[in-house]
Design brief:
Layout lengths: L2 H13 L5 H10 L1 H4 L5 H9 L2 H8 L7 H4 L5 E2 L3 H16 L3 E4 L15 E6 L5 E5 L8 E4 L2
Antiparallel strand pairs: 1-5, 2-3, 3-4, 4-5
Helix pairs in contact: 2-4, 4-5
Length: 148
């Protein structure tokens, strides 16, 4: 197993509460020379010094989602309420097909600034990625985004 594969496993263990932040950051610090050759310096700093939210945000670029959850609907803010409705239908189908399971909001997650609507959280039953579906509210049309 190479260093990047070990890092990916450590991130999964951290996300799934099998490893705590201190143990993760100690490993990153001890492995920083090897990791600095494989990941950008800014990402490495977030992994080494960030809180759980920053670590999970930085890990999205390192830990890929699988094709099952990645193809449910396009990531990002919706351009219309109709787009939100289409995403909601796609998420519901993914739930029915066992691709996603509904989970509680992760304790470490802080909504994005300007995120007004209520939200729901889902985890991919294949790769473990965590997704956030935000409902439309006032000027915001909602969003579908991967948070871990």
């Amino acid at each position: 197993m190479n260093d990047l594969q070990i890092l990916m496993k450590k991130i999964i263990d951290l996300r799934d509460n099998r490893l705590n932040v201190d143990a993760f950051q100690s490993w990153v610090t001890a492995s920083r020379e090897l990791l600095s050759k494989k990941i950008p310096q800014g990402v490495l700093l977030k992994l080494k010094h960030g809180d759980m939210g920053k670590i999970m945000s930085a890990s999205i670029g390192i830990l890929p989602s699988c094709t099952k959850c990645d193809q449910i609907f396009g990531k990002g803010e919706f351009t219309s309420r109709a787009e939100h409705a289409a995403c909601s239908i796609a998420v519901e189908k993914a739930l029915q097909n066992g691709i996603l399971v509904r989970v509680n909001k992760p304790a470490w997650y802080k909504p994005k600034p300007g995120q007004l609507g209520p939200d729901a959280y889902y985890q991919c039953s294949s790769c473990g990625s965590i997704w956030n579906l935000v409902e439309p509210e006032r000027h915001c049309n909602g969003l579908w985004d991967r948070i871990a």
